Every structure is written in structure tokens, then in C-alpha cells.
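Q: Please design a sequence for this.
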């Protein structure tokens, strides 16, 4: 509630706990419903808060038994095994309006989850690529400056930047192909021609996987 709201606008709260196992060993009842009650008088607060428990350790219903099964059993079957069915088949098994709404919601959540995972993976790869290039460029510039003191600053910087860019590309390709990432020590011993050849080879391998 917010300040100024009327109490009559409050709705009951239902907590549903799906338990992986058995909560009450002395009962074979799958579903328990708990309400707030006064121990002295036995009075129950109706339409306030309820806690429902569903014990998976007692759940053994099969698809062939769904028709005519209690609602709790049918809901549990849907939540447990929805991922194993095609949407059309699910709607055949659960034709009731409330189940159809739940199935549509599950499909929507699944699609959004997959889209978001692909989106996050793509942007992570882009960020990693930029980070690798910047890091490699920074290291390349340092090496280039050191060489520049001996061979000329301009020439050293150009070579350092070229190597830094190649390092970044090579490491990104290795990451996308799930290969071991080359160390700076390994890359330092390679000539520019070798680096370029390795990059071309990895690019071809990546295209063949797509």
C-alpha cells in the first residue's frame, strides 16, 4: 500500500512453495494449505495470507493420467515438463483458459530469455574485443616507444600499433572459437607475417562454423 490508500483495496497474498522432496513424512498429501490462525480461539484470518506447499517427492503422475487429475497435479506437471513439449502439444494437454494463458506466458518468457542471452553474448563479445584491442594497443605502444628510442620513435610507434591490433584480432578469434588464448610471450615471438597468417586461418575456421 501507499500512503492514503484504502484498506479495502488490499488483495490476498498467496505464497506457493514447490519443494524438491517430502516436507511431511507422516502424510501422503501432495498439497497443503496454511492460513493465519489464532491458537487460542481457532479463528482464521480469511482472505489475507495463504501459504501453499507442493511436495515433488510425492508427485508421480504420468501424461496419460492428466485428464481428470486434480488441478494442483496438472499445474505441477505443466511447470515440471513444459520444456519437453512443443507449444501445440501443451495446449492439447491443457485446453483450459487458465492453462493456455500460462503456456503463452511461458513461451513469451522463453523467447525473451533466448533473445536477451543472444543480445548479451553479442555485446559482451564486442566489449571484450574492444578491451583486448585497447589493451594490446597500449602494450604495443609501449614496446613501440622502446624500439623508437633505438630505431626512431615514429617507426617504433607504427610497428607497436600494428602488432597491438593484430594481437587483439587474434585473441578475439581464439575466444570466439573457444581455443586457448595466446599469451603475450607467445605473440611476441611471432613475426607480423606469422600473425597475419594465423588470423586468416582462424577467420576461415570461424566462417566454416557459421
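A: Design:
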Amino acid at each position: 500500500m501507499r500512503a492514503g490508500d484504502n484498506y479495502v483495496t488490499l488483495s490476498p497474498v498467496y505464497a506457493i512453495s514447490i519443494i524438491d522432496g517430502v516436507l511431511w513424512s507422516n502424510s501422503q498429501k501432495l498439497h497443503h494449505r496454511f492460513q493465519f490462525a489464532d491458537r487460542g480461539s481457532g479463528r482464521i484470518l480469511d482472505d489475507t495470507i495463504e501459504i501453499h506447499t507442493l511436495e515433488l517427492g510425492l508427485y508421480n503422475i504420468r501424461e496419460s493420467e492428466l485428464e481428470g487429475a486434480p488441478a494442483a497435479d496438472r499445474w505441477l506437471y505443466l511447470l515440471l515438463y513444459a520444456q519437453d513439449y512443443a507449444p501445440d502439444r501443451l495446449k492439447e494437454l491443457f485446453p483450459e483458459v487458465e492453462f493456455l494463458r500460462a503456456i503463452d506466458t511461458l513461451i513469451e518468457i522463453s523467447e525473451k530469455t533466448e533473445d536477451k542471452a543472444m543480445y548479451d553474448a553479442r555485446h559482451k563479445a564486442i566489449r571484450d574485443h574492444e578491451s583486448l584491442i585497447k589493451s594490446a594497443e597500449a602494450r604495443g605502444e609501449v614496446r613501440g616507444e622502446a624500439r623508437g628510442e633505438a630505431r626512431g620513435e615514429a617507426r617504433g610507434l607504427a610497428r607497436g600499433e600494428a602488432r597491438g591490433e593484430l594481437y587483439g584480432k587474434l585473441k578475439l578469434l581464439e575466444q570466439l572459437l573457444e581455443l586457448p588464448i595466446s599469451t603475450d610471450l607467445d605473440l611476441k615471438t611471432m613475426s607480423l607475417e606469422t600473425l597475419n597468417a594465423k588470423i586468416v586461418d582462424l577467420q576461415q575456421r570461424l566462417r566454416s562454423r557459421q
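Q: Thanks. Anything notable?
A: The chain has two domains: 7-110, 116-209. Residues 7-110 form one domain.
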